[in-house]
Design a protein that fits this description.
Helix content is 19%, strand content 30%. It is an alpha+beta fold. The strands form nine sheets. The chain has an eight-stranded antiparallel barrel with strand order 1-2-3-4-9-8-7-6. Strands 12, 13, 14, 15, 16 and 17 form a six-stranded mixed sheet that branches. α12 packs antiparallel against α13 and α12 packs across α16. It is globular, with a radius of gyration of 31 Å.
């Protein structure tokens, strides 16, 4: 037996290569990407060998119970000797009596990326990394245990870290076949030869493609060019297949092949050549209708009985079809599935999803609703496949349904686990309470949900819950997403008559926002011609726009390119209001409703048209704050996913002398916009009595900003005190309408006059700025005469605002003609009250 020095000396010392088929191997050079493999190994006891390529060998751990997708499950991983790189292709039986004797299956393979320096991490005993495998994905960690080693062996823990690939429900070890040959452990142990195709290098499966998503609209489109499909009530699935090799991914890219073995076998039986299919997996009731609750029950029971409706083909034969029109893609899909001219083939579980071209789409929707179907999907027949939420796909629902996040539960007075679940959605300022659901639970669901909730308990709610419901409630981290059916939204955005349908494991909680249908007229009406500056699709005002197709506003179908083009159109006028002022930017890397952060200081990516100037704040700290002069800075902000621009009340050359006063009228949730309009007019009358003109700004949120231009005479302290005294005076005169305190408990049924924006370092939204709110609204300036034409503070969206500006509209064109002073007499008049 030849021995090898260095990293593989222990590996060679333990093996007799004249008796075992294991590769003798040597330290290798490896490729550009670092490989990883997991081998299922039935030796003295069943375990999984986890191996990471580093320095030309495979660093190896024996994981006794195998990897888990649940971050709470920390699996023991015993460090073993390094293995050669070509061990990554070994599958077979090690003879009994030899070291490691037993059956070995190649269970997973792929590449890994270390987070930080892997050598230092390995030495320190904690190595973090990202896996891109066929079964394992996302962030993981190996952590060495202290003082618990067995002899020369090091005990480590293999841990799944929190990310979109974690799952407390999915059992990845249910995947029982080889990723190399498709054989089971029994077939390998029995010496069964792999299929002829498997002995060759397997064809690479198509890469996962971000799925196309539909925009929710208020009615069916009636103009020609649309085809219609049934809207299924299940899990979106993207199926990659090449021969017997099949992978089923969720809409976020999770590998759920093990959850749907019947469907994977049905696809494998077709012998497809590198095909990528878009589909929906459902549970069908006795009437042939998809039923989400039934889907959940069958998944939990693991007894099969699920169906898969394929509706699009993204690639075949290794060639992408994304640029082809939908009609051509569906015809090729029909051919691949062997579907007859009409209706689904055979008895399933794999069906072709038929499309319809009705003369009366509204009548088709009515028929669907009568059959208790979820609704329709309308698609442009000539459109390419466009990842993300685009207006080429529309969804029209028969009833109100959407995903909501569980943020707590109400305790039951009866003998059951809980009375109801407290629900929430992502809002502008974080989590927002969205109501309760108390029906739709059977005994098993109550027990199962209660266990999940107990593991997520926290002391305080993540959203403000009404006092009457918070008294007798428990609260949880916002990690569980529930499918909810309900009668509609109340005026204060709570669900009515809600019914629980099941948990969704395929959608991350941070993406859950309140769905608002878009007017079909906005989708189907002709769009204004693009200006010449837009001729180059991936550049606006000479600034390259990365990922121009990225959806920033979900249901509103506004892309990053759309935002950049709006900023270009609005830039010159926005600059008149916002240039030469310190700026606060709201950056939203995942788009509206996702994580956000504020930026006041210059960072890479915002350094071409942005400037800085030092400013000393109230704490005596001097920092360089951002401002701009060139309107192209706003296009650069759009490139960095900026969804809001907030401006200071002063200019950078005199940062302590404000030239504008802002009264932000912020209504309680239950108030209608009519009340806000009337309040704004009352504020105007009070200001006119003080000989001060003002202009209203639709905030793009819930309220109205009443803005008062003034000469730069006083410091912020004087202006803030004046604004505060005036607000208190108005609140005292009309306590049934106004409140000037920030306490939410005192704001019920009233309008909070927020005057705190008139302070040094404070900011207010810039006129014409987009807002980080559903529907892609902008802060739109109007005149007092125009105010009655609008029915909400977010009535003007980014597409409409751009269209208005391109037509020559100049909102607030009188603003700069207002030249007025805040005099001593006015200040004393307010303070003397």
């Amino acid at each position: 037996m030849a021995k090898s020095p260095g990293q593989l000396s222990e590996y060679h010392a333990k093996r007799h290569f004249d008796r075992t088929a294991e590769p003798e191997g040597k330290v290798g050079a490896g490729g550009k990407a670092l490989s990883f493999i997991v081998q299922k190994h039935d030796a003295r006891r069943l375990h999984y060998d986890f191996r990471l390529e580093l320095d030309g060998v495979l660093k190896s751990w024996a994981v006794t119970r195998g990897p888990s997708l649940d971050p709470r499950e920390k699996r023991l991983a015993v460090r073993v000797e390094d293995h050669p790189l070509d061990y990554g292709g070994f599958e077979g039986t090690i003879p009994e009596g030899e070291y490691g004797g037993g059956t070995v299956m190649l269970w997973d393979r792929g590449t890994w990326e270390p987070i930080g320096d892997p050598h230092a991490a390995l030495e320190a005993g904690k190595i973090a990394f990202t896996l891109k495998g066929e079964r394992l994905h996302g962030r993981w960690a190996l952590v060495r245990m202290r003082g618990r080693s067995r002899g020369k062996r090091e005990n480590w823990l293999l841990i799944k870290e929190h990310d979109e690939y974690e799952s407390a429900e999915s059992e990845v070890l249910d995947a029982a076949s080889s990723v190399l040959t498709g054989r089971s452990m029994e077939a390998i142990a029995g010496g069964e030869k792999p299929p002829a195709k498997a002995r060759k290098k397997p064809a690479r499966l198509p890469e996962f493609v971000e799925p196309a998503l539909a925009v929710l609209v208020d009615e069916v489109p009636r103009d020609p060019g649309w085809i219609f499909e049934i809207k299924y009530d299940g899990y979106r699935a993207e199926i990659a297949a090449s021969g017997a090799d099949v992978r089923i991914h969720t809409r976020s890219g999770l590998d759920w092949t093990a959850k749907f073995p019947e469907i994977a076998r049905a696809v494998a039986s077709l012998g497809l050549d590198r095909a990528l299919i878009d589909a929906e997996i459902v549970g069908l009731d006795d009437e042939g209708r998809s039923n989400f609750s039934l889907l959940q029950q069958r998944l939990e029971a693991r007894r099969g009985g699920l169906s898969c409706f394929a509706f699009d083909l993204l690639s075949t034969g290794g060639k992408s079809l994304l640029a082809k029109p939908l009609s051509e893609r569906k015809e090729k899909l029909r051919e691949l599935l062997g579907a007859p001219g009409k209706g689904p083939p055979g008895n399933g579980p794999l069906f072709y999803s038929e499309s319809f071209d009705p003369r009366n789409p509204a009548e088709l929707l009515e028929q669907c609703c009568k059959r208790d179907l979820e609704g329709l999907i309308a698609k442009r027949a000539d459109a390419p496949y466009q990842p993300g939420r685009r207006p080429a796909w529309l969804k029209i629902k028969c009833s109100h349904r959407q995903e909501l996040v569980i943020i707590g539960w109400s305790r039951s007075k009866k003998e059951r686990e809980f009375a109801s679940l407290l629900l929430g959605v992502n809002g502008e300022h974080g989590w927002r309470y969205a109501g309760r659901v108390g029906t739709g639970f059977d005994a098993a669901t109550l027990k199962r949900l209660s266990a999940r909730l107990d593991a997520l308990r926290i002391g305080k709610p993540v959203a403000e819950v009404p006092r009457e419901f918070a008294r007798n409630a428990g609260f949880v981290r916002p990690e569980l997403v529930a499918e909810i059916e309900f009668a509609g939204w109340t005026h204060d955005c709570m669900v009515r008559q809600a019914r629980f349908l099941g948990l969704r494991e395929d959608k991350p909680p941070e993406q859950i926002v309140q769905e608002q249908p878009v007017s079909i007229r906005e989708i189907t009406s002709p769009k204004p011609a693009a200006p010449k500056a837009d001729a180059k699709a991936d550049a606006v005002a000479g600034i390259p726009i990365s990922h121009p197709e990225k959806q920033l506003y979900g249901e509103a179908a506004v892309t990053k390119l759309d935002l950049a083009r709006y900023m270009e159109a609005a830039g010159p006028l926005m600059a008149r209001f916002g240039a030469e002022r310190f700026i606060s930017l709201v950056r939203c890397p995942r788009g509206q409703g996702g994580p956000k952060f504020f930026q006041r200081h210059l960072q890479p990516g915002l350094d071409r048209y942005w400037l800085t100037r030092d400013f000393t704040n109230k704490k005596g700290e001097t920092e360089p704050y951002m401002f701009f002069r060139d309107p192209r800075a706003l296009v650069e902000a759009a490139q960095m996913d900026v969804l809001e621009v907030h401006i200071w009340g002063s200019r950078v050359n005199q940062p302590e002398k404000p030239d504008r006063i802002v009264f932000d009228l912020d209504p309680a949730p239950e108030l209608k916009f009519d009340a806000v309009r009337e309040a704004a007019r009352q504020m105007r009358e009070v200001l006119l009595a003080l000989r001060l003109e003002s202009l209203p700004l639709l905030s793009g949120g819930k309220g109205i900003h009443v803005v008062v231009p003034v000469r730069r005479q006083h410091d912020f302290e004087t202006v803030r005190r004046f604004a505060g005294k005036l607000s208190e005076r108005l609140a005292d005169a009309a306590p049934e309408r106004f409140v000037a305190t920030m306490s939410k408990a005192e704001r019920t049924g009233r309008i909070f006059i927020d005057y705190f924006r008139n302070d040094s370092g404070a900011s207010a939204v810039c006129p014409l700025s987009p807002r980080n709110r559903p529907g892609a609204p902008v802060a739109w300036p109007v005149t007092w005469e125009e105010l009655d034409r609008f029915d909400s503070a977010g009535a003007v969206s980014i597409p409409e605002a751009r269209s208005r500006l391109q037509k020559g509209e100049q909102p607030w064109k009188t603003y700069f003609d207002i030249r007025q002073s805040l005099g001593k007499a006015q200040i004393e008049s307010v303070e003397s009250e």
